[in-house]
Structure formats: C-alpha cells, structure tokens
Amino acid sequence: MLELLRSRHADEEDMFKASFVHGVPLALVGLGALLYWAGVAQYWETAAPRNAYLAVAITVVVSQFFFFVRSAMSLWGDPVRQNLRARAAAYRKIAHIARGEGADIPAHYPHYGPYPFAATFRPDVDDREQSESEGAAVNGHP
Fold this sequence. Notes:
Helix content: 55-70%
Number of helices: 4
Radius of gyration: 21 Å
Strand content: under 5%
Shape: elongated
Distance between the termini: 30 Å
C-alpha cells in the first residue's frame, strides 16, 4: 500500500512539474502581452502596428497554451496513471470508511492530488512500473 501511495505522490509531483514548466511561462507571457497592450500598444497611431502586435502576441500565447494543454493531456490521459489514481482514490475511500468505523487513521491520510481525475479505472491496461510516455511528457514532448 505504501508503494501505491509513493507512486501516487510521484505522479502528483510529475503533474505539478509539467504544469509549472508550461503554466508559469504562459501566465507571465500572457500577462506581459496584456499589460503591454493596455499601456502602450493600443495607443499607437496607426492600425498596422497594432494589428501586427496582436497577431504576434496571440500566436505566442496560443502556442504556449497548446504546449500546456498537450503536456497536461499526456499526463492526465495516460491509462496507467489513471489506474494508479483510481486505485489511490479507492484506497482513500476505504481509509475513510475505516476511520468512520473507529480505526486510528489520521484525518488527512491518505491524500495525494486531484482525485476527480481518477474516475476511470481501465482493467484492460497492463500495469507497468512506468508509462512509456511518462519520461517524455515531463520534458514537454508527447
């Protein structure tokens, strides 16, 4: 059971790293583009430079958003990771039932990550130690 919880914790860390790698630059560039538009670009005299700025800013933000979504989908959509999350969610339910029946279990044990994403268990998926896409997904490649 501890191995399951360790694996779930590692999965949670991988999801955080991937969202941090793509989400922080997306937020910074998006905010910077918006602030530059609000403070400078909207006051340019001709429409051509404003439209060029908008085109470049939208292209950059949309491309970063694409990489963010692709990274998130590769981690959340991996069937092996979904099975891991489903097992951890089921164990969490069992722990809550046991706590309700009087077992001495700490109040927040176990709790690793966003359990709503653990809704699907796929019995046809082979349980392997590490997903084929796991190493590539963290590095930003599908």
